[in-house]
Batch of 4 targets.
Target 1
Amino acid sequence: MPRKVLIVDDAVFMRGLIKDVFSSPEFEIVGEATNGIEGVEKFKELKPDIIIMDIVMPFKSGIEATREIRQLSGNVIIIMCSALGQETLVMEAIEAGANDFIVKPFKKDEVMTVVSKFIK
Amino acid sequence: MSESEYRSVFISEVKEHLVEIFDRLNMIEQKGAAGDDVLFDLFRRFHTLKGMSNTMGQTGMGEVAHLLEELLEYIRKNPGSILSFREVIMKGVNSISLEIDNYEKGLKFGSEEVISELSYISRAIKDRLNVQVTQPSPEQIDSKKLEGLYEIIFEVNKECRTPSVRAFMLLKELSSRINIIHSEPTSEMLRQGIKPSRFRVYTKEKPDYNIIDAVLKRTGDIMFVSDGPYKAEDGNKPVRTVKYIRIPFERIEELSSGLDELLLLWNKYRYSLGENNLNPHLSRLEYGFKKVLGYAERLRTVPASSIVPKLTALTESTARSLNKNVKLVVQNENIEIDKSIIDRLEEPLLHIIRNSVYHGIESSDERIMSNKPPSGIIEIIFREEEEYISITVRDDGRGIDRDKILRTAREKNLIKDENLADDEILELIFVPGFSTVSEADMTSGRGFGMDIVRNVVWQTGGDISVKSIEKEGTEIVLRIPYQFASKKVVIGEIGGFRYAFPVSQVRCILRNNDIRISDDRKSVIRGEERISLLNGGYQKAQIFIICSGQEKSIAVGMDDIVFVGETRLYKVPYVLKSSKFINSMVIVKGICPVPVISTEFLMDERNL
């Protein structure tokens, strides 16, 4: 069964890129959210296996959303989508419960290497 | 999404952000102030613009957005300052807007001027805030605090873009499983932005390697370097002196082959006793014997670093003669490798490095033009893996030119098939006859081609592979067994040719007078049993090798048996690869290389 992926990012452009990365039979994009609040809602509704989460977003940041989602589920794989220069924020996100992170601009292989560490 | 779709989404999304940004800036202009939410909104939009433009390769736009993001971060902390910066923000936003218009039309626009202005401001802000731009220096720790602790040293992959976060992750994962007393740098220092290349973790006792291994796999980008009780580096402690004596290597080889013989005898004896029949004395003897075998094995090994000086010298002299700047970086050179193997690998490694300096690394000017640091880097990484030692030689040069390889291979009639996969093209460099004198001049030649490099590696029982990305570099990986691979075989002779059969697949060897051959000469009959005969057409066979597969056996007629015993195993040379019966070769003193027959394949073939 394909793994369910939820993409949380405020930029259509980035969501498009991430969708392309996960366009394989192993994955199914079950939903997209454009901010942290929507991200938490969509998580409850769709129960994804993997969440790709932007850090800086309107209304509720990716870190806040990660913290809330992690309290709801210990199993969901949360991967932060960060940029260079955001190291401190990424560390905060990891403390909040993120499993790992990718750095923009990223290549498909890099994302898959990170994801494959968590799925067997 | 296709590339043109990305392009149009990118353009329209940047424009959308710009409209919103202009809107906010106008509002600030009218009110003469800005609320937290507005400033955060601007900050976030610049951040998003930065990520998108860098992804699309629009680094000018990305840099402007990055500097504006930094500026907004400062303004968020000092909201009053927005008015003094609004002009330069406007300039920056205008430049992004011009860039995106030009990008849409396929034109270029330089943002250098506004970038330099913004960078100046960014520096000024940092000075004003007295922010430490340089890395905080590691906290001086009291070495007494660490005395009696166990030290584990890790290294962050040099290519890792975010070393501080990786180290932070490792620390977090490790401390959830083992009791960490101290680390250097500490997670607080990592949070402040210190970028470690190496870092150390201190625990009360020797940790479980399985835990470390699992954590490293999970974290990624970090390697284990070494571990041991902490030793202060103050030099006050007495240095343990090691005494050396010189011994010819042959004597060590004599010792190990003598021990090997003993081991064989011991195994035979053990086998004759049957399972679980070892009395306590014999089991202590066995334990002691195995310990000695371990010591003997260690006698044969030397640290890989013993060949590093030669490699460094060669890199420097070759680079100098070609007027290039090349640095050789060696990682993990302390691992121990069988002396006879490392000796054999010296020439191949020298050759690979020579090739890298000569063909891979570009001149400084060319490197600068292609946005690389002027000095090239060749990395040699030694790694201990489960069954192999791997030696990676990686350069950051121009990579292997596929078209050139294909041209050369065609000129030399090495290929006919025009549709080779990328890895097949790269493999061509190992084909005998590929590298010739015209290409390999005095510096890179010495009549030593990549085919010979591969042969030497094969002779150790190892393997070699190549990866290369054009403009980014080449990576050659040698996988070498800890000791020479060996195999027990029976070598038979038929019509002047010799073939080897793995002992593991030979059930027995029968003489002519032990058996009867059926009238159709298709099987060998021994008592009640009928065994298919592979080469019944050969009338002169004196001896039959009976090979047993999973379900049936097969007999092969031979003139004679010339050798039974342990020999060195080689990979099959390229020319023989097309034969499916053969997958390796063995070499015995006094006998030229003998192909090892894959008996399983023989059995399949008969079924067809």
Target 2
Amino acid sequence: MPSSFFNPTYVFTSAIILRVVLLLYGLLQDKYSPLPYTDIDYFVFTDAARYVSHGYSPYNRETYRYTPLLAWLLVPTAWPGPTWFSFGKVLFALADIVAGWLIVLMLKSPAGGNMRIERALKFASIWLLNPMVATISTRGSSEGLLGVMVVALLWAVLSRRITMAGVLLGLAVHFKIYPFIYGISIVWYLEPSPDDSKRETVSSAKDSSPTSFLQQLKAFITPNRLTLLMSSLTTFSALNIIMYAIYSTPFLTHTFLHHLKRIDHRHNFSPYNTLLHLSSASPRETGLQFESLAFLPQLALSAIFIPLALAKKDLAGTMLAQTFAFVAFNKVCTSQYFLWYTILLPFYLPYSSLLSSPRLGMTAAALWVGTQALWLQQGYELEFLGLSKFIPGLFTAGLAFFAVNCWILGIIVVDIGNKSIGKPATSHNTGGRALKEKNVVR
Amino acid sequence: MRERITFVHGAEDAFDPKQLQIQEENSLHIKSLKAAREDRMTASLYELPQELWRVLKQCHELHIRWVSEHAFPSVAPFISTISPGLHVFFTPLKDRSAYRSTLSAAPKGVRGTAQMYITRAENYVDINYDTISQSLVLSAFWHSESASGRWDGQIDNHGGSVKVEVGVLAIEKATQPEELSLGGFLAVLGEDTKPNPTLFSFPSRHHISPSTSGTNYSTAFIQPTGLHPTLRLTLPPSTDPPAPDCALHTYLTLPSSLFPDKYQLSSSNFLASNNLHSIRSLSGEIDLEAPTWAVSKWGSALLLELAPPETRSAQWHADIPLHLRYLRPADGGSTNTSIPWPIVFWACSSDEGTKMNTNPFDRVNLGYDGLFGPRTMFYHLRPTNGGVSLVDELKVPVLDLDESKVRWVESGTVMVVLLGFFWVFWTLGRVVARDFGLGTGSARRKKD
């Protein structure tokens, strides 16, 4: 008999029961309460799926801003009978479980930390038994689907299934754009493995100082990197070409262009929110418009500096830091975006100083929750009491939340940075490889 | 050009034909007449000034209606209701390019002719034009004479250039349920030497809701309104349909500052909990996200079927959830937006073969009537508000443009974002610098 709760049967049974209970509870609430449990987005998805099942474009449904793949996937929800309507929620919940199973698989693997099953399950429970995650999926939000794609991508890279990684990357970017930032860290991470025969060429290229740019480039373009690039670009382009061929301009407008030209004036957690609101309502004719440059610090950190500085130390941690930066510096930020990095926490927390120093961890958690609560309080007074809380209330609360995010991001960066120093508890993976490399050099 | 002036007095306000004296050939004197009044002027297209004629030539149909914000009691046959405000219904004749020029020019061109009516009208003014009749019809309605409550004065036919018909009528008991019956006196100036008695009946689209079906309603916003105001209709306990196949409806005319969410109004539980049945029609600006400065349409119109509760011992409510767009930032952090009261009516179908358009007082193209079949009858409930305006003012929180607050937004945002950026950049820099240092150190050691 298993001595601890953290064995696969218990954890996965609990995760499944949690979702089944929430699903059934949701059916009851939907049936009897005027306030539906089901997320408003789920009605958007299922309406779009109904259009698709009748041979129409999913973009006939207003505010459908996703890939047609999602509507296709949910076509069974348009089948007759109330049971089929929940098909999407079951699918999203199932995606959660699969994502959790992949997390466990990776944490156990040599590349992911060589954890014992019990410890791996503890960290995977951050995702599997997280009530927020389970609620979001069972309410019918598709974030769980993206979660499984990102974890599968990570798993494919770490287990060197490069073509599959490229396909997953292309698919994820087609689905939600932002995962393109992972492309850069994966390319950077994919330096020749110890078993790779070309490894020595690269290390010698590194050591000998006067190398031409061409040689360096040649060394950089490894078969793995090429495979990743080609497979991801092919998948991404193929999906877009197919969708464009079927749905033409509405597909481009709603899936991609909408995200570029949206005004984002409604209050949200983003530090830019008040500035965007102000400049959208009363545009200035002259002067530098800082809000139009908002993508610069965001992409500089999430797509360039973080991957370059950290990807070779720990890919999963780097992806977490990238997502964290991307969300914190985004022009629009809502709580569903937090799921984007929640899925990556199980890979970072095992060596995080937020856990090794409980005081630091508690402070970070308290500040992260506290500044959000402050913002929510202001938002409540605006939305429901009708008080003008834009400035200073929401403005300062948004900036405070942003500042806390930057501070936490700093901690994450330092933690990942520490990995190469080779503390035994913190670097199963890169430490191990560094040892092997030394042996080979000698 | 023809002019028809109709006075309708109540049964209790006894009318003596002596109050209506045809003094000379072309004029008529009215003495102390307590009645509602409708003036209706019809001009064919060629009788109009060229400026106006040109504008109307581009229209297939044009209906401009202005309704006062003050409540007035119903007087048959003038029963139809519309929400207070200016309503313009326009159908261009040809292509859409005509749409803009005509729409901006029409009110301007019509204004000269209609000015007299608008300034004098107490309750409502209609301006109607359509290509089939090729004529412009202006009508204005007063529930009663504004100052004294009694009409006094002279009506003449401008030396015979206008055919003027005057009627003083009272409602009589109709024989058919869909009919109205009027009796009284008629006179055509320049033709008749004395008022002629008359009695006539006609089917009418619009009726007053009988007391068993509820006669009055009132509206209010549930406080606090926030950014998601709920409009509450309060209806009387006795609301049985006037006929078996009738349904109770409300028609809302909303400015672009507010919008109904058609998806929220599609959830059956939600509708049922608010005594609503379903959306029958929603048109106009229905974008669910855009702020007012990003929408171009005037607003939206919503026709909702209500669901009276089964047990009707007390007053009941129908709650209509609405949502505010973001309005333009303003000093002080709040702006007002005006929302006219919706109208409430029973819609019933009438017998096959009823000819509604034989009604000399027929009023069509009101916004909601076209959403029903041509033989639909409307039983109207009246708004009761204790004499206050039928336009509700809503205080909307907006971004405060106070200079002392706003000036920190740009510099504050830029400063905090840059500080955050450089903090993360610096921590990354430290990691890279240490790696670089360690890297060269170990490399050197290796070489050693």
Target 3
Amino acid sequence: MPMLDESLQKEVAALLDQMVDPVEILFYPKAGDAASDAMDELLHDLAGLNSKVAVKRQDGPAPLVAPDADDEITSSVSVFMSNGKPTGVRYLGFPGGREFGTFLQDMVGISTRVAPELSPETVRFIENLEEPLHLQVFVTPT
Amino acid sequence: MVADMVDAGSFDRLSNRYRVSGVPMTVVNGKAQVTGAVPEAHLMRTVRQALGA
């Protein structure tokens, strides 16, 4: 049974129609985790709604990004790729509730290469960044 | 640069490490954090603090 009901499928398909370039998601499941199983189903549904969404299920664990520890990766990791390269954007866990919209917007944004609305100062700062930067935004489904 | 959205409920160990009590909460390099949907300038102050810039 699909994760998305028929009406939601139509809404999501309309949103994904805005995609231009293909987006590939490397999916690193977590065995025995219910949220990981749900994410697996959700990604399968999304790939079925638009041919520009490709999901590649990975066998091993997701590459760690400092300072995360191995035992802190308690659910699935989805890595957004574009043109075969990591975009730097990842989703850890399952995007429930309102976060689903954010997840889809991220995917469409990557596909359409929409420039983020940042000040020139911030853009300059990021362009000149020489050390690793890891931003983690914690959210809960609402 | 890596930007993660983290489902706090599924990543309880990670959430506990940073004592996530409100969302959204942004953690930078595990060193500095800010709670709430703060303006860009505020977030960038946190980023600079984490990088020692």
Target 4
Amino acid sequence: MIRFDAISWRFLRVWRRNLITYRRIWKVSFITPLLEPLFFITAFGLGFSGMIGAVAYGGVQLTYTEYIAPALIASAVMNNAFFETTYASFVRMYYQKTFDGILATPISTEEVIIAEIVWAASKATAAATIMLLVLGSFGFVTLPQGLLILPLAFLGGLAFGAAGMFFTGIIPTIDMFNLPIFLFITPMFLFSGTFFPVSNLPAWAQPFALAFPLHHLVELFRTYCVGANETPTWISLLYLPLFLLLFGLLALAMMKRRLIR
Amino acid sequence: MDPIIEIHNLIKTFNGVSAVDGISFSVAKGAFFGLLGPNGAGKTTTIRMLYGFTPPSSGELRVFRREITSDWRWIKAKIGVCHQENTLDPDLTVRQNLLVYAGYFAVPKAVARRRAEELLDFFALSHRGDAKVMELSGGMARRVILARALINDPDLLILDEPTTGLDPQSRHQLWERLETLKASGLTVLLTTHYMEEAERLCDRLVIIDHGKILVEGSPQALKQRHAGDRIVEVAGPGAALLDFLAASQIPYDDLGERLLIYLTAEQEIEERIRSEFCMDRCTFRSGTLEDVFLRLTGRELRE
């Protein structure tokens, strides 16, 4: 079903279309990544740190704000990418008929789908960049290795964008995105070692956390922000591309089935 | 003749149901070709196969003498499609819609800019170039879609019900533009529900129903063959008239309250009906493509 010979760099033309739209509202789009980390750091830094003290993680002692700062960026990458290829792509596909227009040109269905996923990753990376600047200015990011977060954010954005695109390929109506968000995104946001180390979970629950892509993105971000981790870096670096490959293929297959009538 | 479209025994089935059931036709370079049929006849499916959106189930389909399945990118680069629905990008302005679309065709930026201005001018849209698409009236939006379909300077223009839902002013304005394009030698494939539109624009057309071609020919020839030159509509026909028609072997359709009599150019019979059977409620008129269409596809509702 998927035609690999129909994939070329022309997908960048569709990516550019999304960029042009984004530039019209970029000031609004930048507010969330700018303020979100400030809210979290203030709330947890002021409200929580007195109760928690230090977090023992990967053999080092971290303040609670140091611990969650990298996870905040990783969660933002997940949300930005996943929401872009679910709600935003669905609106373009179903309500605006943007894809129908594009598919009457020399662009293939595969290229449209890839463009949407790459765009989601780009938007997620833009958000990660702003958050990195904000959190970096508070000293939560070790430089220069902290900059490695940006290419990793792009990789994570591709992975979550592909997962979102897969759901867009199978979901009957836009309201039903609540389901993957409740069953997939929310548990991941809570149990991926974001707000507490996975090692604090009971032994039976830990493998589930390790299967979450967000866990691996958080681990990689923390590795380069504070220099410690609980999961070997190579496992995370292997897991995310494999997740992307699997959901990328699933997204292409399901979206093609949905679009081509 | 240089064929732009060659279709032979084309079939498309969806879950075992044939939407297009073995149609064959060809369109010569420079022709204005009509694809007519009731709702659900297979028009849009045929068009979608033509521009490589829907893969055919079987049959031959060549555009510009190339196979759509293998040379789809090359073919699509030379086609302009004007969709039935509004597929304009509501996130972009009118001008951006044209420029971004040119990008999908990899038209060089400078060329795209020049062409966009020419097209905005041609479709009387220059003053709305920076308008948001959502602000446009139905007629304007339709013109933008048409302008966008021409941004790649296509050799084949596909129009899927281009004037559906437009007011008479917008429709006539669009027809004038389409006639200008036709005069410039552009090959056009048109689907429409408006017989007046097909009659005015098309050199040749096919009427399809249930996925099959019923007839093919020029509007003039089809009218002659299937509607007759003259038509008499009789309201509340009497038995004497029916007997006369049967005895004279004149073709007619009995719609219950109304009778449609199909006559040749011969004056004699028309005069006889006028003097003997039409005391008051008769209408004498020329045959139209609409008569052809209704005779061939039937009068029952489709949806």
